[in-house]
Amino acid sequence: MHRLIYLVIIASYIASISASAAINIALWPINQHINSSDSSSILWIKNAGDDNAGISVRVLAWHQKAGNNYFSDQNDINIVPPVLGIMPDDKAFVRFFVSPSTHRVTEQAYRIIIDEVPHLTKGGQDKVALRMRYVLPLFVSGSQTPLSWQQKGDNLPARYPEVTWHFSTGEGTKTIVFHNIGPVHARLSDITLEGEQKGKAAIQLHPGLLGYVLPGATLTMPLPASVLPSDKETLAARFFDADSHPTVIPRG
């Protein structure tokens, strides 16, 4: 059964646990990729806190349908180790393996879920602990994903994702719909809209990260009431953090 999970750092209050505070960890690299020529990727985890850190790691398959994200258990990715302990100011790594027998033809998307394992102690049954969850994307290139589309770490690929957009109106609301027509995922951030009038500043529709659009999927963004849709606007967005300037996205 598919399960919907919010794609943010989650702080959940857990009753009957006596730990007084959440752990403090650093993760890198946060852009996890396994290219067609690779069999694994590595995630480093550093304990930046003062207490021992217990960490559990799992991976869920990620799909998109009708603009929504869905997650399910999977057997494609093996995690080594799935549970680990890290001393204060120490670091360790987790490796994600994909076996050749499960390497798909097209790009596959996953979510890495990193949870704190709370320390259970006697007494303090009425205390409440803060448990941290970190969620990262993992993308596995398919055997037929062109090399020019594949990203290595934070380096820019030779070719950018192929995305189109259009205005949509329904149930009294105006939206922009992004459609990924390419073979790889698209990460959209810093969305701007510019009218046909030259010299007029572009409208910033969404600063920062908007979200991901998987191949063949769509992503919908609400349009401010002050923006009147027409066929003259130019929309731009950043696909990568290393982009020096936004990329114009064609209408579709």
How do you describe this structure in short?
0% of the residues lie in helices and 50% in strands.
- Specify the biggest β-sheet: 7 strands, mixed
Distance between the termini: 33 Å
Rg over CA atoms: 21 Å
CATH superfamily of the largest domain: Immunoglobulins
CATH level-3 fold name of the largest domain: Immunoglobulin-like
Number of helices: 0
Provide an overview of this structure.
The chain has two domains: 25-145, Immunoglobulins (Immunoglobulin-like, Sandwich); 163-249, Sandwich (Immunoglobulin-like). Mean pLDDT is 87; it is low at 1-20. By secondary structure, it is mainly β. It has strands spanning 10-15, 25-28, 32-34, 40-47, 53-65, 68-72, 77-80, 83-86, 91-98, 108-116, 128-140, 163-170, 173-180, 186-194, 203-213, 218-222, 234-238, 247-249. It has no helices and 18 strands. Strand 14 (186-194) and strand 15 (203-213) form a beta hairpin. Strands 1, 3, 5, 6, 8, 10 and 11 form a seven-stranded mixed β-sheet that branches. A four-stranded antiparallel β-sheet has the order 2-4-9-7, with no helix packed on it.
Summarize the SSE layout with pairings:
Blueprint: E1 10-15, E2 25-28, E3 32-34, E4 40-47, E5 53-65, E6 68-72, E7 77-80, E8 83-86, E9 91-98, E10 108-116, E11 128-140, E12 163-170, E13 173-180, E14 186-194, E15 203-213, E16 218-222, E17 234-238, E18 247-249
Parallel strand pairs: 3-11
Antiparallel strand pairs: 1-11, 2-4, 4-9, 5-6, 5-8, 5-10, 7-9, 10-11, 12-13, 13-16, 14-15, 14-17, 17-18
